[in-house]
């Protein structure tokens, strides 16, 4: 059994085309019905303002599978500690023996989450998209744009965040990557010229409304990953010409389909894996409005862990 720490993993795995192909292949396998994926195991540790999630999946025929344990203890910054942590355990799919412990401290989760956003945009946004709006100014706000540039030729970034100082700091970091960046105090103004909108916040109340959406925009919502969080008003979902999620059951429990809890969803729900596996073309014209809700899947963790371990073992 091998043990790898974050520094070695970071040197080996990045947000690049090879990693994107690995995660995209995981989604496609899910869409073909080739994945065993149990529900997320979640546990709250309320007295420490913490939570722990366990995700896993097996891709039939794959050499290995992974189990990921991720923790979020949100008072940690007051102690000088990171709020997010975790590791992945890689097992042989033939013998069940542990092959490696990837003590990545959440790094691989960050990578696969960013790549999922790029994969959604690859299949749902206009190919000519060059202007992206990001709501949020944290790490995923940065990484989502980095990954998106693998599939779209971006030149302009508009940003809105609850704290203007955070938006300004984010803008400076992103200008260093060669993008023209505009900071907005008004969210509707930030979205007005977007080809793609990314919501990357921990919001517990809807932020984005249908009236904020320009014609033909693609929206990727990736912040709602627990029953308490919401980023999209129900009007965004009902206005969409095509609504896609990574998992309908997870979206209903953790994601944006919670907006219709207890009632019938008034539109067709597509899953990203099937869109990829079946080559579905949901964007019929440049005016088609698409929305994708990403809650994070165990198959993404198995895909990125297997990719990482293969590179570590060969390098």
TrEMBL record:
Matching Pfam families: OCD_Mu_crystall (PF02423)
InterPro entries reported for this sequence: NAD(P)-bd_dom_sf, ODC_Mu_crystall, ODC_N
A cellular-component GO term for this protein: cytoplasm
Protein name, UniProt field: Ornithine cyclodeaminase
Species this chain originates from: Halomonas ventosae
